[in-house]
Design a protein that fits this description.
The complex is a heterodimer of chains A (424) and B (276).
Chain A (H helix, E strand, L loop, with lengths): L12 E2 L2 E2 L8 H14 L3 H15 L5 E3 L1 H6 L4 E7 L9 H14 L4 E6 L3 H13 L2 E7 H6 L1 H9 L3 E5 L6 H15 L3 E3 L10 H24 L5 E5 L4 H8 L7 E9 L7 H4 L1 E5 L2 E5 L24 H9 L2 E7 H15 L5 H14 L2 H10 L9 E7 L10 H10 L4 H6 L1
Parallel strand pairs in A: 4-14, 5-6, 5-8, 6-7, 9-10, 9-14, 10-13
Antiparallel strand pairs in A: 1-2, 3-4, 11-12
Chain B lengths: L2 H12 L4 E6 L5 H13 L4 E5 L10 H12 L4 H15 L2 E5 L2 H7 L1 H10 L4 E3 L9 H9 L3 E6 L5 H10 L4 E4 L15 H11 L4 E4 L5 H10 L2 E4 L1 H7 L5 H31 L1
Parallel strand pairs in B: 1-2, 1-8, 2-3, 3-4, 4-5, 5-6, 6-7, 7-8
Helix pairs in contact in B: 2-12, 5-6, 6-7, 10-12
The chains are: A alpha/beta (424), B alpha/beta (276).
């Protein structure tokens, strides 16, 4: 029904998705950013500087860890490897993108960074690289998210960033993004906007995926070392979709089943733009979107602030349509259960966002028919040993301790945790 | 060129410097919004811009954001915004330019949307989040319906992009006065005159300046160098506490009338200055 305006040969299109739907004021700046990024991505000096920061500042490569007790809880018929992005400096994959973009900001001579944040992980990563590079930093965060991710608000302020509460709309990530764009339109001369996910106008979706592709490139190499073969399955959660885009980048050309897991939310709503949305334009690109019949954007809901967004990156829309990636959703309760599982079975406190990917892993491995299909589909044949699964553990969950997850964990420890905590 | 282009060309030929008031459809209330449109007519304006409220107006400052939010809560929709435009056209003989974000347009479909605009008698359309590079599809659909897609240029727009605008724009060219969102800044940077001159060198269309124009002095300054002024947030601020039609009409007529007079006076002075 909706035919987007399309151009032949426009970079930044994933099929019909993507594009640059922003006010004119920003267009020259997007052109400049694209040119600087395209030059940098093949510049040995840039790549060496980024590699050094990855290794010595962020702690890459992050481990690929086999979660034996978790895989036993999933039925014991598969080997589950966690890509430990939670062990990055600042505790999530977000730093990968921020390190790349701050180097570009310096090349463009910008004096200030702007960011939006939901869970606070991207805000913390941006505040961190701003401190590292000696740049000023303003982070927009919905007031609701400031309450539910209080520890990250403190961290950003400690790092010298100004955290601006956003009071419009649902007071979550969507509104913080709109406010960050308004700041950028106003201060484009001296400020660079580090979008935290594979969303926004071109070149952001491609550029952020490039900076996150280190996840998938490392994971591919590591799983080949440890298993001697490619995995059968790779799983990541999807809000805007940057950790998933990064993981999938390592496997998209291989015969590996890829799963993106959206937030199914609760009776309060959901954030499953790919599963339940329709294409439209929000925050600069054409992609799947939660919207009503009039094209007004519908507020999302998720227990995970980082997934609580009504849109999704345009590349994921394309990968959904082509069928290369299967997108599914996990609700708040399932995510909380998986959160509890990993805490108690592995001694790893995962982010609520990443817990969606873990919950889906557990569900998939419990589905005999699906597993049989995956075994039959692989090149090595159905009898080539257990399924090998890589799950992106995109961030750590300390930030969630004082909110729903903390309450859940405490209640479970007390023996009053309801279904999830007691059962597992 | 559509009816909007005919009117803006005629106004320029007359030496007029029009004020184009902006109202958000359904704000502050349905009745008061109609009152404001009557006030626009009373003030002697021939053109008006009506905004279709959108949930996520990234190019707008706090005033238009709040107005959009309130209008949506009160039940305003794209279809009802077009009914309001049709009413302004029919009852007040105003030439209506609609302003709306892209997503509601895509949701309806560009062709269907263009036909609905044509049925409502809309003369032009402004889409703040649709840069000229991405606009071919909607521009074509609107042109089929004899509606001008108004192009926005900004102080950051360079010469190469100005030529792109000049090649595609129709109706008038909307000059965003400062880098920023609506309703902020002084309404004219220090270098407004140089900016207008730079755009005029690239484009022969009438040049209308908007974003933050809200006082007689600012309007007069626009009148001395450009062809028209668009006044949005400043008008909506005047309407904020008004709910009934008559009061909105009086407030609009008084405020816009003041700007109309400021522009006319500045325009006369400029003309006299030219003669001497």
């Amino acid at each position: 029904m909706t035919t987007p305006p399309t151009h032949a040969d426009v970079p930044g299109r994933f099929g019909p998705y993507g594009g640059q739907y922003v006010p004119e004021t920003l267009m020259p700046c997007l052109r400049e950013l694209e040119a600087v990024w395209l030059a940098a991505r093949t510049d040995p000096a840039f790549l060496a500087e980024l590699a050094e920061l990855h290794a010595d500042y962020s702690g890459r490569p992050t481990p690929l860890y086999r979660a034996r007790r978790f895989e036993a809880a999933c039925g014991g018929k598969a080997r589950v490897w966690l890509k430990r992005e939670d062990l990055n400096h600042t505790g999530a994959h977000k730093i990968n993108n921020c390190l790349g973009q701050v180097l570009l900001a310096k090349r463009m001579g910008k004096a200030r960074l702007i960011a939006e944040t939901g869970a606070g992980q991207h805000g913390v990563a941006t505040a961190t690289v701003a401190a590292l590079a000696g740049l000023r930093c303003t982070v927009y965060m919905g007031q609701v998210d400031m309450q539910r991710q209080e520890p990250n608000v403190q961290r950003m302020r400690l790092l010298g960033a100004e955290v601006v509460p956003v009071l419009s709309g649902a007071r979550t990530l969507k509104d913080a993004t709109s406010e960050a764009i308004r700041d950028w339109v106003t201060n484009v001369a001296d400020s660079h906007y580090i979008i935290g996910s594979t969303v926004g106008p071109h070149p952001y979706p491609t550029m952020v995926r490039d900076f996150q592709s280190v996840i998938g490139i490392e994971a591919r190499r590591q799983v080949l070392e440890k298993e001697g073969r490619l995995p059968d399955v790779a799983i990541a959660c999807v809000g805007g979709g940057s950790n998933a885009a990064g993981l999938f980048a390592g496997f998209v050309d291989d015969p590996v089943a890829l799963y993106g897991v959206e937030a199914g939310g609760s009776s309060l709503g959901h954030s499953a733009a790919l599963a339940l949305g329709t294409p439209g334009v929000l925050h600069g690109s054409y992609s799947y979107l939660l919207q009503d019949d009039d094209g007004q954007v519908v507020p999302a809901h998720s227990i995970a602030a980082g997934l609580d967004y009504p849109g999704v990156g345009p590349e994921h829309s394309f990968l959904k349509d082509t069928g290369r990636v299967t997108y599914d959703k996990v609700d708040d309760a399932e995510a909380l259960a998986a959160f509890g599982d990993l805490c108690r079975l592995e001694g790893i406190i995962p982010a609520l966002e990443s817990s969606h990917a873990l919950a889906f892993c557990r569900r998939l491995l419990g589905d005999e028919a699906a597993c049989a299909q995956l075994r039959a589909a692989r090149a090595a044949g159905p009898d080539a040993g257990p399924l090998v699964v890589v799950v992106n553990l995109s961030g750590r969950g300390d930030k969630d301790m004082h909110g729903d997850a903390g309450a859940h964990g405490a209640a479970a420890t007390d023996g009053n945790g309801g279904d999830h905590g007691q059962a597992r | 060129m559509g009816r909007l282009g005919d009117l803006t060309a005629a106004l320029r030929a007359e030496g007029a410097r029009p004020v184009v008031p902006f109202v958000t459809a359904g704000y502050p209330t349905d009745e008061a919004c109609r009152g404001a449109l009557r006030g626009v007519k009373d003030a002697g304006c021939r053109l008006v811009e009506i905004g279709v409220p959108f949930s996520d107006p990234v190019a707008d400052g706090p005033v238009i954001q709040a107005a959009s939010q309130r209008a949506l809560v009160q039940g305003m929709t794209p279809a009802r915004s077009l009914e309001l435009a049709a009413w302004a056209r029919r009852e007040l003989d105003l030439t209506v330019v609609m302003m709306g974000y892209l997503n509601p347009v895509l949701r309806m479909g560009s062709e269907r949307f263009a036909r609905a605009c044509a049925e409502a008698g809309v003369a032009g359309f402004i889409v703040p989040d649709l840069p000229v590079d991405e606009a071919a599809g909607l521009r074509g659909a609107l042109r089929e319906a004899d509606i001008d897609l108004v192009s926005l240029v900004a102080p950051t727009t360079d010469t190469a992009r100005l030529q792109l605008h000049a090649a595609h724009a129709s109706g008038f060219l909307y000059l965003v006065s400062t880098t920023g969102v609506t309703g902020t800044g002084a309404g004219a940077g220090d270098d407004l005159e140089a900016y207008v001159a730079r755009v005029r060198a690239a484009c022969s269309l009438p040049l209308y300046v908007g974003f933050g124009v809200g006082t007689g002095a600012q309007a007069a300054r626009v009148a001395r160098c450009a062809d028209g002024a668009i006044v949005g947030s400043a008008l909506l601020r005047k309407l904020a506490d008004i709910e009934d039609e008559a009061a909105a009409r009086a407030a609009t007529s008084s405020f816009i009338g003041e700007l109309v007079r400021a522009m006319a006076t500045a325009c006369d002075d400029t003309t006299k200055g030219d003669r001497s």
